[in-house]
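Students often ask why we bother encoding 3D structure as a string. The short answer is that it lets us treat folding as translation between two languages. Here is a chain of 52 residues written in the first language.
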Amino acid sequence: MNMKSVMIFDPNDSEEQTVTKFMDWMRDNHSAVGDKAVPGVKETQEYLRRYA
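And here it is in the second language, the structure alphabet:
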């Protein structure tokens, strides 16, 4: 919907892989953090309930 960016963590990734993915995401999406277009917890939960 109105989401600009989503970070997906894979439980099978090592801690190093997770950190690398997160750092890459932060580098590429730093302007999206705190943006009103990125949903908060309530909006995310509602979205997941609708499409689960």
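Translate back mentally: The mean pLDDT is 78. Keep this in mind for the problem set.
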